[in-house]
Amino acid sequence: MALAGVRVIELAGLAPAPLCGMILSDFGAKVVRIDRTRAAANVDVLARGKRSVALDLKKPEGVGVLKQLCNQSDVLIEPFRQGVMERLGLGPEVILEQNPKLIYARLTGFGQSGPYSKSAGHDINFIAVSGLLSKFGRKGEKPYAPLNVVADFAGGGVMCAMGIILALYERMRSGKGQVIDASMVEGAAYCCSWLWKTQNVGMWSRQRGENLLDTGAPFYETYKTSDEKYMAVGAMEPHFYEQFIKGKFDIVRSNAMQVLIIFAFKVECLILVCRFLATLLWWIRGSVVL
After folding, report:
1. Number of H helices, E strands in the chain
2. Rounded CA gap, 225 and 123, in Å?
3. Tens digit of pLDDT for each residue in 152-198?
4. Residue among 263, 138, 270, 145 at smallest CA distance from 213
5. C-beta separation of 46 from 15 below 8 A
6. Could you report the per-residue pLDDT of 120-134, keeping only the tens digit for each?
7. Alpha carbon of residue 42 to chain centroid
8. Is 24 within 8 Å of 161 (Cβ atoms)?
């Protein structure tokens, strides 16, 4: 497998770090999870393929064992807030001095620097700071968090795993390890780059719940059925919309509304392009041309 022979130490944490470790394990890495000695119960449901050992990192003996494990490993995943590992005597300066080839992955909500770096938080807080939470919800309703998949898993676990794999690849050239600062706020924002890039081209220029993909269009929505359940409709293309209306449900209905909405988005895009060109010409010539 792709990561066969890669040895990973994962310090036990909540959802993001276990997912990161599981991804590496799924592709062949040997992952050892370091549990707390006084943990009430093992709640890691993402432990597939991992081994585990319990260490008390508040005691010198436990710190010494972890250092030895890091000397024999390729990757360390730590999910604690900024400064915790340093206080334990396990910061990157100490560990990388002993093993310069180690990939030291730090997976936190707000990153290792900045005003929130020492703050606690959860997925809902991270996507709020990233700006994404303001995009989730229906028109006229408060924003809602889409479970904890955006920051914890996409922006956290998956992005951290990708960073580790890239660092391992870079190590093949340089022979050196490095520190990965995986911030769930920044990771979530990065995963949604398409959303930010389409704000000014008509896709997300309206208020929450009024856009093409956020329940603002009738052909991209969920509907309640007669058996008190729900169905999802994603018929953006006119021919699919026509099949949906006339085919399965034998309902005679014009798709004029769909055409009008798509036309409105295209008109808005054209207006934005014209505004951009007008601004550009104003800067070039010093006067508004359009």
Report:
1. 10, 8
2. 32
3. 999 999 999 999 999 999 999 999 999 999 999 999 999 999 888 88
4. 138
5. yes
6. 999 999 999 999 999
7. 25
8. yes
Long-range CB contact pairs, 238-243, < 8 A, 24+: none
Non-local (6+) Cβ contacts of 252 within 8 A are: 245, 246
Beta bridge partners of 107: 182
Amino acid letter, 136: F
Question: Which positions ≥6 away from 108 have C-beta within 8 Å?
Answer: 79, 80, 81, 82, 117, 182, 183, 184
Catalytic residue check, 250 = no
Distances (CA, A) of 240 to 191, 219, 225, 228, 274: 28, 10, 20, 25, 32
pLDDT score, position 153: 96
Nearest to 13 by CA among 64, 99, 85: 85
Question: Whole-angstrom Cα distance, residue 174 to residue 181?
Answer: 19
User: Cα separation of 75 and 163, whole Å?
Assistant: 11
Question: Which candidate, 72, 160, 171, 52, places its Cα nearest to that of 108?
Answer: 160
Q: Write out the H or E segment, with its range, that includes residue 142.
A: none
Whole-number Cα distances in Å, 138 to 118, 201, 210, 214, 260: 33, 21, 8, 7, 21
DSSP 79-100: -PPTTHHHHTT--HHHHHHH-T
**Quick check: is 239 catalytic?**
no
The token pair that represents 15 in the structure block? 């959802």
Whole-angstrom distance, CA of residue 231 vs CA of residue 247: 16
List 122, 123, 227, 250, catalytic entry: 122
Catalytic residue among 123, 152, 181, 214: 152
